[in-house]
Amino acid sequence: MFFPYKDDNPRILVPVVTYGIIAANVLIFLYQFTLAMSGPESEARFIYMFGLIPAQFHIINLFTSMFLHGGIAHILGNMWFLWIFGDNVESALGHARYALFYILCGLAAGLAQVIFNIDSILPMVGASGAIAGVLGAYLIRYPHAQVHVFVFIFIFFTTIRVPAMIVLGIWFLTQLTNGLGTLGLDTTGGVAWFAHIGGFISGVGFNYVFQQIKFKEY
Fold it and tell me: 10, 63, 133, 216: which could join 203 in a potential S-S bond, CB 3.0 to 4.6 Å?
C-alpha cells in the first residue's frame, strides 16, 4: 500500500482556484456536519437533494454532487490529492482554464457513473471524479515528476520517491480493475469506480483539447 504526500514539481502560479475549490468543499462539508449533529435525517435529506442519483437524473446534481462528501476520510483523501497535484495543473492551464477544466472533468465523471449504474437510487457524492481528471492531466504533462510516497508493507513503513507516471498509473489501473470487476454486480453501495475512470480519461482528453485551443486569460 502506498500514499503520496508531496511532489518535487515547482509551481509557477499561486493556485488560487485550487485553494478556492478546497475551501468550498471544506465549508460545505462543515455544513453537512452541522446537519448530522442535528440528526442523521437532516443530512440524509441534504445528500438526497444535492447528490447525483442515476435513476432520478437531474443535470444540476452533476454540479452539486461534486462538492459533497460521505465522511471525513472521504473529503481528506480527495482534498489531499487535489492539494498535491492541482497546483501544477493550474499553473499549466492558467486559472480560468483550470476552473473550466475541473468542472468539465467532474461532469464527465458523473455522467460515466450514471451510464454504468443507471438503475441506482442511491446518491453519488464527492469530488473524486473531477480530481481524477486533474490526475490524468498531471500524468500527461509531468510523467517524470518525482512524487514522495509513504509505503506500507505489512507492519513496515518507509518513504520513497517515484515518477508520477508510476504513482498515477498504478492509481488508474486500480480504478480500472475495480471498475471492471463490478460490471454485472451491484455497485450502488460502494465506490463510484466509473466516476474515477471517466474523470481520469476526460482529464487526459480535455488536457489535449485545451492545448489545441487558445484562451485569453483575464
Answer: 133
Cα 89 to Cα 140: distance, rounded to the nearest angstrom: 10
Query: Is-contact 3 150, C-beta < 8 A?
Result: yes
Closest by Cα among 160, 165, 161, 159 to 144 = 165
Please answer whether residues 126 and 74 qualify as being in contact, where contact means their C-beta atoms are separated by less than 8 angstroms: yes
How is residue 176 written as a grid cell?
A: 480500472
CA Rg value for the chain: 17
CA distance 105 to 127: 10
For residue 49, give the C-alpha cell.
Answer: 437533494
Superfamily of chain region 2-212:
Rhomboid-like (1.20.1540.10)
Domain ranges in the chain are 2-212
Packing angle, helices 95-116 and 193-212, rounded to 10: 140
104-131: per-residue pLDDT in tens? 999 999 999 999 889 889 899 989 999 9
pLDDT tens digit string along 167-193? 888 877 777 665 444 444 333 445 677
> Using an 8 Å Cβ cutoff, are 211 and 143 in contact?
no
